[in-house]
Amino acid sequence: MTKPLRIALAGLGTVGGGVIRLLDENGALIARRAGRPIEIVAVSARDRSKDRGVDISRFAWVDDTTALAGLDVDVVVELVGGSDGPALTLARTTLAAGKGFVTANKAMIAHHGLELSRAAEASGAALKFEAAVAGGVPVIKGLREGAAANAIDRVYGILNGTCNFILSKMEAEGRDFADVLAEAQALGYAEADPTFDIDGVDAAHKLAILASIAFGTQPAFGDVAASGIRHVLATDIAEAEALGYRIRLLGLADHGAGGLFQRVHPHLVAVSHPLAHVTGATNAVVAEGNYVGRLLFQGAGAGDGPTASAVVADLIDIARGEFGPAFAMPADALAAEAPADPGERRGRAYVRFAVADKVGVLAEIAAAMRDAGVSIESLIQRGSSGDDGVGGSVFVVIVTHEGPERAVAQALERLRGSQSLTGQPLWMHILG
Amino acid sequence: MTKPLRIALAGLGTVGGGVIRLLDENGALIARRAGRPIEIVAVSARDRSKDRGVDISRFAWVDDTTALAGLDVDVVVELVGGSDGPALTLARTTLAAGKGFVTANKAMIAHHGLELSRAAEASGAALKFEAAVAGGVPVIKGLREGAAANAIDRVYGILNGTCNFILSKMEAEGRDFADVLAEAQALGYAEADPTFDIDGVDAAHKLAILASIAFGTQPAFGDVAASGIRHVLATDIAEAEALGYRIRLLGLADHGAGGLFQRVHPHLVAVSHPLAHVTGATNAVVAEGNYVGRLLFQGAGAGDGPTASAVVADLIDIARGEFGPAFAMPADALAAEAPADPGERRGRAYVRFAVADKVGVLAEIAAAMRDAGVSIESLIQRGSSGDDGVGGSVFVVIVTHEGPERAVAQALERLRGSQSLTGQPLWMHILG
């Protein structure tokens, strides 16, 4: 057996503790698989004395996290978080020192992945971040390696476990968003400030990373159009179900002549599609390749065990010497791609209006659709039950035929400020 | 750009043609990802003049397939098939020459994988066979690398597309096995001699490979207990549906104190399980790890495009220099594990009897179950429609509580030769 892979670990939260427990419990098996032991030698975190349920007295303690890169180690594992600050400093100093860097930090990779990938290539160091996307699911490996023979037409999936937990609970119990969010927060499934999850920012970080690897383009987080699930009502879930769909927050990216398209948005997914059956905090990613067809990767998207599994998988790759450019090709080979114009896209849409119960409202909506050139496939009007947060309103749900998204946007623009609407319309795309 | 990876290709059937087309179409993208071009330089097949829809005149032609290993190439791709014969000779000579060997040949890897893995390690050559299991789905990579940090408790899945095509067509259309098989053969979805697919041998080859990688045990194809879907009736599918299940041919392996357990058998899968929603020729594999939880990999299990995708993914790994021991650890580290005793297993069972419509039959079956200690959860008796191949019979379906499989076997043994039974009972396990 060759010499151990020596690890410094920054961050001792739930995932850091999970990494320590995993290496303790599965260490002998991992040494057989990796060809050498993987040993944590030093750790750093904010509070040395906190009880983490694991013995850290056997590791060297370092007060200044960014000093870990200077130790006699092969790899630094960063579980501190934050797109900048100490995490980024640590990444830069570690890679500059020619040491491997493994992270679960999606925000940092989405923002600074290109720079860090260049730094890794310059020093010959490994840069790996499997845990940054879809927790324990090896989807970065699946795209970087498993599907590497394919031109990827499209990549999309359920990238945020908190949102999927809330949507599938709304679905199962007929409850509204705010109600389920409050319960999820009480149970610890959602953060006290859930903005990054609920509004699609977390999924957007992950999508930007996936799109780069899938398409050979530079990570472009700033070009992801993101909205979340805040405005999805129980009535939307019920109407979607009646139409043969479930609502899922999808990150979706494709890449064609028009540029790189990246969107995080609640979508209607046909019940015949595998993603319609993904419930709870599970993540699932679909990649469509020109030879392999549709690949699906699914599993736990968060939690200390799954995330630690992905972090240690990266360490095993490094211990085996099986690693290369982080984004599947050298940073300089990644194309700087302009964002695609969403108005040019075609698709089917679901639009739900909450309207006043008075004469002429339907005619006004129908006229706006007609004037914008939107072709209506079905229209349903249903009275509100009164306890759905838009009490006293009537719901009008329109499903369009396939057509340009620009037309739907124009129709909604025409209706803006209309006295007939009692709230903002909700426009969701139907996954095609 | 460094020098190309030079390939010799043995076998120019549909998959071989797919590999050539894929490298033609995606070659530039693959060179960016692999860091170097991948170039076929020589080919060999039975018939040089056959029209394959691709131009092979640009490659050197070699009459004797086994001579490919002697050429100036980096990797030999074997798509000839057969567990022994020329494929095995080619594998041995290629690896002995220190050249990479990539194959889609599940039978050869299931039978001779250990020997070939040793040969690869001895010469430092790559041995890769992603296409041997689940076609285009990167499940070997998923287990070998993606889930490598985990002790895998269990691996199971839908490993044969032909059987899943037949079962899901029976399910959708209420038809019986023989009828759907005949149609599948006419359409080319099933072989003229479908034995390997239908009776579970193909799935058993794949399961033996997956189990070895998952558990760190030597491939043990001879220890796989395999039966197929020949005896599944439309009535079984209907009864399962009424109970909340779908029937799927599963390969399932686990590994504990009792040894290595490997089984290919039709199972009842709860409709809440993702595998219940896998229809058509799709393959899907679940791995349950002690940290990652349940991982699912799903996609096209066969076909020239998906299989070529997996073959070329292996070539990209080799071009990148990202490869190591084929079964996830050195051959000598793989444990020689005794097979587990199936009688020791516990589970729930579905047993369907076709019985004569006369007094006392139910009592006889119930007594046999009681005497063997089988605890019955539900029992359904239903008249036959007469057009299901067991005309005039009555069906009795029993679902057991969880208990030892030995007891069910004993109950069926007690009923053997009973005049009350008009056909062989069908015993299926319920996936727990």
Automatic annotation (TrEMBL), chains A, B:
Pathway: Amino-acid biosynthesis; L-methionine biosynthesis via de novo pathway; L-homoserine from L-aspartate: step 3/3; Amino-acid biosynthesis; L-threonine biosynthesis; L-threonine from L-aspartate: step 3/5. GO terms for molecular function: homoserine dehydrogenase activity. CDD domains: ACT_HSDH-Hom. Pfam families: ACT (PF01842), Homoserine_dh (PF00742), NAD_binding_3 (PF03447). Its EC number is 1.1.1.3. Keywords: Amino-acid biosynthesis, Methionine biosynthesis, NADP, Oxidoreductase, Threonine biosynthesis. PROSITE patterns: ACT, HOMOSER_DHGENASE. InterPro entries: ACT-like_dom_sf, ACT_dom, Asp/hSer_DH_NAD-bd, HDH, HDH_cat, HDH_CS, NAD(P)-bd_dom_sf. Residues 350-428 form the ACT domain. Belongs to the homoserine dehydrogenase family. PANTHER family: HOMOSERINE DEHYDROGENASE. This is Homoserine dehydrogenase. It comes from Sphingomonas immobilis.
